[in-house]
Design brief:
about 325 residues; alpha/beta; Rossmann fold; 5-stranded parallel β-sheet; 9 helices; about 45% helix
């Protein structure tokens, strides 16, 4: 008897602990990225913070490729904070120089990672965009007037609309010229989009699905069905968080498990499991820290760490 409709995924085992990964996109990017980092992988995620719509994600990617630093012209002042329409609110700061320091520090990190990246992973969250209407906020960061974050400005300052499939696909077809050695992977966030009702939410996700399918075919990128796994394999509210919109912790763990068995090499999975065991041991608080038994345990643990760090210096 089967109680779910399993999503069949063709394995593409190209990720190991020598891989250099850049991840951009929605909060689901953060979920998967953090788990990869915890398992010892070389990952830089969201150098400009969480991003949801495909245009903002691509604009961020262009800036990362270029490596051009942010300046005062890219900022605006609101509610006592200096902010950027290209960045998540976590980059905003009351001190202009501190805001720019954080933004440029992460920009450099992303730029350096992309130079020798083996994998680029992009997660689309929503096809809905917000366009700034007030000309006082037009800056070099808002050339297209599509913002990555509204930063709690009054809604009258924005117009909202759904991107067309062509608007999404056109810029991403250029990724094929970025780096012939770069493996590009797309996914759609499994977070439900219900801000304008269930029907609009389905149209929103459908737009992303159609656009992503076209992009993957045109540039020979891979697609990981995180959204489909959530909708079919985990089709039950027990797999959602309390808000009934975001996946629960166990759902994220399950989707990550499907991700690892799809993309991680067998050795990478073994190494990741070993790292997790070591981290669990490191968090152990002994009842008798001065005992010979615990000293032996420490020695063995240090040997395991030494072996791993010699094999994977990064």
């Amino acid at each position: 008897m089967k109680f779910t409709t399993p999503i069949n995924i063709k394995p593409n085992k190209t990720i190991d602990h020598n891989s250099r990964i850049l991840m951009l996109g929605s909060c689901f990017t953060e979920n998967i990225g953090k788990k990869l980092i915890e398992s010892g992988f070389n990952v830089v995620m969201n150098p400009m913070g969480i991003l949801y719509n495909p245009i903002s994600i691509y604009t961020a990617l262009e800036r990362i490729i270029d490596g051009r630093e942010f300046t005062e012209d890219d900022l605006f002042f609101h509610n006592g904070l200096w902010a950027s329409f290209m960045h998540h609110g976590s980059f905003s700061h009351s001190d202009k120089n501190e805001a720019l320091r954080m933004m440029n520090e992460r920009l450099h990190e992303g730029h350096e990672q992309l130079k020798n990246a083996t994998h680029l992973i992009i997660t689309f969250g929503s096809a809905e965009v917000y366009e700034i209407l007030d000309s006082q906020y037009f800056t070099s960061a808002t050339t297209q007037h599509i913002v990555s974050n509204c930063h709690k400005l009054p809604s009258r300052n924005f117009a909202t609309r759904l991107l067309s499939i062509d608007e999404i696909t056109t810029p991403y077809t250029q990724l094929s010229t970025l780096n012939s050695q770069l493996s590009t992977l797309f996914t759609i966030s499994p977070v439900r989009y219900l801000g304008k009702g269930a029907h609009s939410g389905q149209i929103n996700k459908s737009t992303l699905l159609l656009a992503t399918d076209q992009i993957c075919r045109e540039i020979t990128a891979d697609y990981f069905p995180a959204y489909e796994i959530m909708m079919d394999e985990l089709r039950d509210y027990r797999y959602y968080a309390a808000d009934m919109i975001h996946p629960s912790e166990i759902a994220v763990d399950y989707i990550f498990e499907r991700f690892t068995e799809t993309y991680l090499t067998s050795e990478a999975i073994r190494t990741a499991n070993e790292i997790q065991k070591i981290k669990k041991s490191l968090s152990h608080r002994p009842l008798h820290p001065d005992s010979e038994e615990y000293k032996t345990f420490q020695k063995k643990l240090l040997e395991q760490i030494d072996t791993l760090t010699k094999k994977y210096p990064l």
